[in-house]
Amino acid sequence: AVWRYDFRTELFTGDERLFEMLGLDYKETVNLRANELAERFNSVYNDRMAEIIKPKLNSTDNYYKVQFLFHCFDGEDRFFEDRGKITQRDEMGKPLEVIGIRTDISQRKAREEQLLLLESSVKNANEGILITDANVTNPEGPLIVFANEAMSKISGYSVAELIGNSPKMLQGPL
To answer: Alpha-carbon distance 159 to 150, whole Å?
Structure first.
């Protein structure tokens, strides 16, 4: 979605897709005031956004990228990524206009959360877990790319000693 913010009027405008993403009807809402949006940003992300955007307002670097959680007008919480550019400044260098592109990254954030949960579960499992690459052309066979602490305790090898070696090292003498 494409958007535009005018610092002079404090109006936020955009295309139909933007308003759809925000949970609004484009035909009924063409402009939004900054204060109507400000209260809908998650406070943690709002602070991060300020850390990224505020320095840009007083510098010559006109580009920024920021991710944030937003409470949409339809009641849904969605993660967005904005890529913005300050397109106009006054004679003192103060921003007058920013344009940007907003992407809904909610599904990506949900997958990232699932991966973090899975990673934590595997790392902290009481069972020994090791994962190898799929390289069957190596004469030693596949190599270990991951081992959890439980596997380290079971095998007697440190995780660092396991990584990069063949699981054959666990067979013992033949």
So the answer is: 9
Q: Give the helix, strand, coil percentages of the chain, each rounded to 5.
A: 35, 30, 35
Cα–Cα distance for residue pair 75/24, rounded to 1 Å = 11
- Per-residue pLDDT tens over the stretch 141-172: 899 999 999 999 999 999 999 999 999 999 87
Cα–Cα–Cα angle for 165, 161, 170, rounded to 5 degrees: 60
Residue in 79, 75, 81, 98 with CA at minimum distance from that of residue 12:
98
Q: Between the CA of residue 173 and those of 84, 120, 153, 166, what are the distances in Å?
A: 62, 34, 20, 14
Q: Which residue has the tokens 């007697």?
A: 156
Report which of 53, 89, 56, 90 is spatially closest to residue 68, judged by C-alpha positions.
Answer: 53
Rg of the chain over CA atoms, in angstroms? 25
